């Protein structure tokens, strides 16, 4: 393996170090032409400010609740509608299979604890949320 070339101090004083990057002061600032196929829009694009709506999520339960409707903005007591939950139907099938086929299997469909409750706005009719049993 050969040794590196010897250092020559005269060479470094006569020649400035090579510039890797051009200096910002040496070049003029010129406008770069747009890419091929660029079309200037006829009208300036104005972006409209976006409206942010904050909705405070309330926890719905099995009973009617006082809320502010996010659709119509009124403060009201929710209108509730109860429907059998999936737990009520599974319990009905299980009781029927275990011998309660003489009507006892229908008991879970009548118990409030086995019902899902849908909450709606009485003013505009919008559905606000659902309480799921179990």
Give a quick summary of the entry.
The protein has 134 residues and is of the alpha+beta class. Helices cover 13% and strands 17% of the residues. Strands 3-4-5 form a three-stranded antiparallel sheet. A two-stranded antiparallel ribbon has the order 1-2.
Structure description:
- The chain crosses the membrane at residues 86-109.
- Residues 1-37 are annotated as: Disordered.
- Keywords: Membrane, Metal-binding, Transmembrane, Transmembrane helix, Zinc.
- With 134 residues, this protein is α+β, with helices and mostly antiparallel strands.
- It has a domain at 85-134.
- It has 2 helices and 5 strands, in the order H-E-E-E-H-E-E.
- It has helices spanning 9-14, 86-97; strands spanning 66-68, 75-77, 79-84, 115-120, 127-131.
- A 3-stranded antiparallel beta sheet has the order 3-4-5.
- Strand 4 (115-120) and strand 5 (127-131) form a beta hairpin.
- It is elongated.
- It starts with 8 loop residues before the first helix and ends with a strand.
């Amino acid at each position: 393996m050969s040794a590196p070339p010897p250092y020559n101090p005269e060479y470094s004083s006569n020649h400035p170090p090579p510039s890797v990057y051009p200096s910002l002061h040496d070049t003029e600032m010129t406008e770069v032409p747009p890419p091929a196929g660029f079309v200037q829009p006829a009208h300036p694009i104005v972006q409209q400010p976006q409206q942010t709506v904050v909705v405070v999520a309330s926890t719905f339960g099995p009973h009617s609740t006082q809320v502010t409707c996010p659709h119509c903005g009124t403060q009201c007591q929710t209108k509730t509608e109860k429907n059998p939950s999936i737990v009520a139907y599974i319990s009905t099938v299980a009781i029927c299979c275990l011998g309660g086929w003489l009507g006892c299997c229908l008991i879970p469909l009548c118990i409030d604890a086995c019902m899902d409750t849908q909450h709606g706005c009485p003013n505009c009719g919008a559905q606000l949320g659902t309480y799921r049993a179990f």
